[in-house]
Every structure is written in structure tokens, then in C-alpha cells.
């Protein structure tokens, strides 16, 4: 194939058949999503959050924040203050995280 053939090939455009379709085709909901919505079983998010807030995971996260020399968040709390704050408030914080409040 010569240079002229390559140039001609690049100028061709493909047309897509749009028809009467919207932006995204309609999809049916999965049964898994419905059971979580209607409470037939605990959602996977709840179980995941329980694992996230396990003591070992929280301690590892605090170590990472300290190691990265994290900066204060929207609450203005410094990294040095975090362990003491967690000791006094962990039970309440954990419950709020697990329940999503």
C-alpha cells in the first residue's frame, strides 16, 4: 500500500445506525439489586463496611495516613490528633459508618 492509498483510506467515515434509540438502551434490573432494596437480605455494602471498620483495617489506615504525612481534612483535624480522637469516639463513629448515618 502506497502513501496515496493510506491517505484515501483515512478520509472515509463510517456511519452508525442511530435509529430511534436514546442515549443508553433500557436495561432490566437485576434480582440482586432488588433484594437489597427490599431488605430480603443485608446488602453487600453493609457487610463491606463492617469489614472496612474492623480494628486491624482502621489501624492500618491510620498508619498509612501518618506515613503519608496527611494534611487536615475539612474538619481541620491534624494527623497527630487522630489516634486520640478515635480512642474516645470509635464506638459511635463505627456505628455511624456501618449504618450509613
Plain-language structure description:
The chain has 101 residues and is mostly helical. It has a domain at 45-101. It is 56% helix and 0% strand. The protein contains five helices and no strands. It has helices at residues 3-11, 31-38, 44-52, 55-67, 82-99. The longest helix is centred in the C-terminal third of the chain and has 18 residues, at 82-99. The radius of gyration is 26 Å and the shape is elongated. The model has no long low-confidence stretch (mean pLDDT 75).
Brief synopsis:
The chain has 101 residues and is mainly α.
Essential attributes:
single chain; 101 residues; 56% helix; 0% strand
Which SSEs are present, and which pair or pack?
Blueprint: H1 3-11, H2 31-38, H3 44-52, H4 55-67, H5 82-99
CA radius of gyration is: 26 Å
Uncertain stretches of 5 or more adjacent residues:
none
The end-to-end span amounts to 65 Å
**How confident is the prediction overall: mean pLDDT?**
75
Series of secondary-structure elements, N-terminal to C-terminal: HHHHH
Report the sheet with the most strands, covering strand number, pairing sense and barrel closure.
Answer: none
Based on CA inertia axes, which overall geometry fits?
A: elongated
Estimated share of beta-strand residues: under 5%
How many strands appear in the DSSP assignment?
0
Query: How large is the count of helical segments?
Result: 5
Query: Helix proportion of residues, in percent?
Result: 55-70%
Structural class: mainly alpha
